[in-house]
Amino acid sequence: MTEKRPIIAVDAMGGDNAPAEIVAGALLAARAYDADIVLVGDEAQIQPLLGIDTPTNIRIVHAPDSVPMDQHASQALRRSGTTSLGVAVSMVKSGDADAVVSAGNSGAFLAIALIKLRTIEGIARPAIATVWPALKGPTVLLDSGANVDCSADELVQFARIGCVYAEDVLGRPNPSVGLLSIGEEPEKGNAVVKEANALLMQAGLNFQGNVEGRDLPLGASERGPIDVVVCDGFVGNVILKFYESVAPMIVKLIGEKGVSHDVLESAMETLDYATTGGAPLLGVKGVSIIAHGKSSSTAIRNALHVAARSVETGMSAHIGQRLAQRAAAQQGVA
Amino acid sequence: MTEKRPIIAVDAMGGDNAPAEIVAGALLAARAYDADIVLVGDEAQIQPLLGIDTPTNIRIVHAPDSVPMDQHASQALRRSGTTSLGVAVSMVKSGDADAVVSAGNSGAFLAIALIKLRTIEGIARPAIATVWPALKGPTVLLDSGANVDCSADELVQFARIGCVYAEDVLGRPNPSVGLLSIGEEPEKGNAVVKEANALLMQAGLNFQGNVEGRDLPLGASERGPIDVVVCDGFVGNVILKFYESVAPMIVKLIGEKGVSHDVLESAMETLDYATTGGAPLLGVKGVSIIAHGKSSSTAIRNALHVAARSVETGMSAHIGQRLAQRAAAQQGVA
Question: Which of A333, B12, B173, B222 would disulfide-bridge B41, Cβ 3.0–4.6 Å?
Answer without folding.
Answer: B12
